Amino acid sequence: MIKKINIKTDETGDRLDSYLAKQFSNLSRSYLAKQIKEGGVTVNSKLVKSSYKLNPLDQIELNFTIQQEEKRILPEKIDLDIIYEDENVIVLNKKPGIVVHPAAGNTKGTLVNALLQYFPKIKEAVYQKGNVVSEQRPGLVHRLDKDTSGIMIVAKNSRAMHSLSRQIQNRTIKKIYWALCCGWPKNSKGRLINYLGRHPKNRKMIADIGKDKGKEAISDYEVLQYLEDKAGNRVSLIEFDIKTGRTHQIRVQANIIGTPVLGDSVYGDKHCINLSKKLNVERQMLHAKILEITLPGDQKKSVFKAPLPEDFNSRLENLKVIQ
Questions:
Q1: Once rounded to an integer, what is the mean pLDDT over residues 128-146?
Q2: Is the pLDDT of residue 295 over 70?
Q3: Count of domains forming the chain
Q4: What's the half-sphere exposure (Cβ side, CA atoms, 13 Å) at 229?
Q5: Are 2 and 51 in contact (CB under 8 A)?
Q6: Nearest of 276, 268, 89 to residue 164 by alpha carbon
Q7: Any idea what the CATH number is for the domain that residue 156 is in?
Q8: Most confidently modeled of 6-10, 91-95, 123-127, 132-136?
Q9: What is residue 40's predicted lDDT score, i.e. its pLDDT?
Q10: pLDDT given for residue 129 in this prediction
Q11: Which of 14, 135, 157, 286 is the most buried (most CB within 10 A)?
Q12: Catalytic residue of the set 145, 208, 264, 311
């Protein structure tokens, strides 16, 4: 492949091999190091070492084939909770704890493995044929975090893939999430606008890094229930209607307004982490509840709803409704 990548200011300081490993999770670090050594990767049209530290405005050029690094994804018998299916799409309720697609450290037991077993022809539902990343994620037009449960729509063919992807890119779909959050927000409802990007000190986290560097993230929220546990600790059931789909968007924005998602060990503060342990919450209580989208070939939108999983329901039942 021939590809050029322009380094942004907030991406500087990384080693070249580390940066590429993050960008191409399906390629091994040793393979990338070999390509750098053999001249398949240049920075500003110059040969560099794997240890080269990236600078602002650097341009990486990749000029090598990656077909040999493709890893065959094997079908696996994994139960799917299917809400709706036709010749173009599968709408399902993803269980918490399942990774959506294979990546470094998660090559088996993913949703993609399950889909290949259930509908083998889904391997042809790719956004761009010949693109290894695309072919490693057949049928997927959007994702949910491993520990987030709820509704997902999957394309069964390339036509459906492009139709659904366009709607997501044009922001004409509606996605509503429910979250159990620590504390009560100051306002019962409102609109959140932040500019999200990689945390400057922890690359595994997302943060509001400002309008100049971050990508706009917009969510409308409304408190559905104000709750308390037996000790009087406050919890709220909040509905998030997301207008953009940034990585960890709801989890970060919930933290910004002072109500981290219950069970979120990454973005939760000390109080929330302790409360999560007390309530025996082992994953973030975030659920994709409603999806409104136009199915391929239809003229009007369809609305799909995913029932809450057992662990979410049980936490709700053990909390007292205040108002």
A1: 83
A2: yes
A3: 3
A4: 17
A5: no
A6: 89
A7: 3.30.2350.10
A8: 91-95
A9: 81
A10: 74
A11: 286
A12: 145
Beta strand pairing call for 189-198 and 302-305: unpaired
Contact 52, 43 (CB under 8 A): yes
- Token pair of 307, please? 């029932």
* Residue 321, pLDDT above cutoff 90: yes
Q: Which domain holds residue 42?
A: 2-69
- Cβ 210 vs Cβ 288: under 8 Å: no
DSSP run (H or E) holding 161: helix 158-169
Of the three residues 69, 96, 128, the one that is the final residue of a domain is: 69
Domain match, 8 and 48 both? yes
Does the pLDDT of residue 69 top 60, yes or no? Answer: no
Residue with tokens 């973030």: 284
Nearest to 125 by CA among 91, 154, 166: 154
14 is catalytic: no
Instruction: For residue 188, give both structure tokens.
Output: 């019962």
- Contact in structure between 230 and 213 (CB atoms under 8 Å): no
Give the confidence band of 130 by pLDDT, cuts at 50, 70, 90: low
